[in-house]
Write a structure and sequence with these properties.
binds fructose -6-phosphate, globular, Rossmann fold, alpha/beta, 3 domains, Glutamine Phosphoribosylpyrophosphate, subunit 1, domain 1, single chain
Length: 612
């Protein structure tokens, strides 16, 4: 959600720390702020002009008479409490101007704390839940407590999942950090120490990162009250395989476009890491005994947004290839369903970031109920990867654009590999069949490359639809989740009303919405439901709606029905979601670009959602 950067050390180069904050822009934000301690003075600057806030802060920084400092705190805010105004932008200060805090997460009991502090005379300047932290710490310090002890006691009073970093004017060589579930990493490098919510902030600053342990106040710098460096030395460093270069735009106008083009490599790297050259399974990170996996009688897949849609595709893959019944749910719902789980249930949590709070907390509850768990995530060492019994990493590299593209394909690849492995263990697939399936999946890379390269042809074909405002996406069987993903992409990038339906459901209600202003995007696979889908297209046509059909090369059946046919290469129907989703990602991106929207930072969205 919110992004946090903190640095402490003699002669910090403020511009490079600010650059670290900029690297967190991709998480999504509406306002940003910094606090700097230099020569014993605490300076605060904030900007709340949405995505231009970083430029405003950069201008402010370069206009200052100083370019170095002892402490810098930075924050990008994605609002949960209070509008994206200047007053609500972090860092927040206490009444004396000594304490500066940045916070990510939600303080569930902030109303009581605020009322209590107001009664004792504290003046609040914002509507945020975060500001209570500064005032509570002010009281602790006034009472003579050491900063780390004071923050520890304040933290005990805060209910909820969060991470906090604190700077104190009266302790200019010290930075304090603490977290519960929300992400917070620490690093030290060449007499400088850092906190950040997310590894990309550090990539150019440090080589080794550590996760701040939960509920422990870590003190960095030459703090009198503790030695963060010594604590970090006792922790296992996280292995981050990305370099700062990985996150650079490579001649593309947006990360969204770049990442869409990186999909074939993201998919290949993910799938090939899970098999030998001879197409045998490589599952060393699964950490679940094959004997236990053989016993699995039910699979549950949970995730949010695009990851949830990958899970829906995964259901068809696991049921078809391993013949195990699968349930799929959005993580935020599953957690409260009072689910029925036991040791014979395998729960798969999917999350690109590995930090979506709802997926982590839902998975934790599944573990408590005795289920076996696997995380599918793109971030090595992320919380989800550590919570689960085993991990399958997607190897898509950093995904900067808020809207996911390449990681979705990598997730489907990982699910495909897992489904084949389960099928093999269960004896549903003979060894030669499972090898054939793995080879087939790997070969999808070539078809994905061909598909991604067709985007320019599609642009010209889509001109007639660019100003339409109502879209329906339809598909059947494992193309229905693809339709859902197409509608999600359209909503989040182009802000156009878009709904997805299983094509057979149209006639049970939604068809009433169709008229000559509506556009229906239909996914026509070359599968056993092909002819039924054609009947559904006739129903659409008869209502006068515009019809875009995604069909495979050589299938001429939609030519007389559709206004536009977007072509993809033919493949085994089981793997067709990998190709079908590409034109939908492209359609949504193209609509947004033509309308002048920022493809990488859609409004109101955050890349990493660490609140419930
Ligand atoms: C959509 C999108 C979001 C995420 C969702 C889950 O393009 O990116 O819907 O898929 O917030 O995020 P992760 O996968 O990080 O758990």
């Amino acid at each position: 959600m919110c992004g946090i950067v903190g640095a402490v050390g003699a002669e910090l180069d403020l511009a490079s720390i600010f650059d670290g904050l900029r690297r967190l822009e991709y998480r999504g934000y509406d306002s940003a702020g910094v606090a700097i301690i230099h020569n014993g003075e605490l300076e605060v600057a904030k900007a709340s002009v949405a995505r231009e806030s970083m430029d405003v802060l950069a201008d402010w920084l370069s206009a200052q008479s100083f370019s170095t400092g002892q402490v810098m705190l930075g924050h990008t805010r994605w609002p949960t409490h209070g509008a994206p105004t200047l007053a609500n932008t972090h860092p927040h200060l206490d009444c004396t101007g000594d304490v500066a805090i940045v916070h990510n997460g939600i303080i569930e009991n902030f109303r009581e704390l605020r009322a209590e502090l107001q009664e004792r005379g504290h003046a609040f300047r914002s509507d945020t839940d975060s500001e209570v932290i500064a005032h509570l710490l002010e009281e602790s310090l006034r009472g003579g407590e050491r900063p780390a002890d004071g923050l520890g006691r304040v933290f005990e009073r805060l209910v909820g999942h969060m991470s906090i970093v604190v700077a104190l004017r009266s302790y200019p060589g010290m930075l304090l950090g603490v977290r519960r579930t929300s992400p917070l990493l620490a690093a030290t490098h060449a007499h400088q120490s850092f906190f950040a919510s997310d590894a990309p902030a550090f990539l150019a600053l440090a080589e080794q990162f550590y996760e701040v342990p939960e509920d422990v106040v870590v003190v960095l710098g030459d703090g009198v009250a503790g030695d963060g460096g010594a604590l970090l030395a006792t922790l296992e460093p996280l292995s981050i395989e990305w370099s700062s270069q990985d996150a650079v735009l490579d001649g593309f106008a947006s990360y969204y476009e770049m990442e869409l083009h990186q999909s074939p490599e993201a998919f290949y790297d993910t799938v090939s890491a899970l098999m030998t050259l001879d197409h045998e399974a490589v599952v060393d990170q699964l950490s679940i005994d094959p004997y236990e996996l053989r016993r699995i009688r039910k699979v549950v897949i949970i995730g949010c947004g695009t990851s949830y849609h990958a899970g829906l595709v995964g259901r068809y893959l696991v049921e078809h290839l391993a013949r195990i019944p699968v349930e799929v749910d959005v993580a935020s719902e599953y957690r409260y369903r009072d689910p029925i789980l036991d040791a014979d249930t395998l729960v798969i949590g999917i999350s690109q970031s590995g930090e979506s709070l709802e997926t982590i907390t839902a998975l934790r509850e599944c573990i408590a109920s005795g289920a076996r768990t696997i995380a599918i995530t793109n971030v090595i060492g992320s919380q989800l990867s550590r919570v689960a019994d085993g991990v399958l990493y997607t190897r898509a590299g950093p995904e900067i654009s808020v809207a996911s593209t390449k990681t979705h394909l990598a997730q489907i690849g990982a699910l495909g590999m897992l489904a084949i492995y389960l099928g093999e263990l269960k004896g549903v697939l003979y060894p030669d069949e499972s090898k054939r399936r793995r080879r087939e999946l790997l070969e999808m890379t070539r078809l994905l490359r061909i598909t991604v390269q067709r985007q320019d042809d599609w642009h010209a074909m889509l001109a007639d639809y660019l100003h339409r405002e109502r879209f329906f996406f339809i598909g059947r069987n494992l193309l229905y989740p693809v339709a859902m993903e197409g509608a999600l992409k359209m909503k989040e990038l182009s802000y156009i009303a878009a709904e997805a339906y299983p094509a057979g459901e149209l006639k049970h209600g939604p068809i009433a919405m169709l008229d000559d202003q509506a556009v229906v995007v239909a996914l026509l696979g070359k599968d056993r439901l092909h002819d039924k889908m054609l009947s559904n297209l006739e129903e659409v046509r008869a209502r006068g709606a515009k019809l875009i059909v995604v069909a495979v090369d050589g299938d001429t059946s939609p030519d007389d029905l559709a206004d536009t046919v977007l072509r993809i290469p033919p493949s085994d129907a089981l793997w067709s979601p990998l190709l079908m989703v590409v034109p939908l990602q492209e359609l949504a991106g193209w609509m947004a670009q033509v309308r002048g929207y920022d493809l990488d930072k859609p409004r109101n969205l955050a890349k990493t959602v660490t609140v419930e």
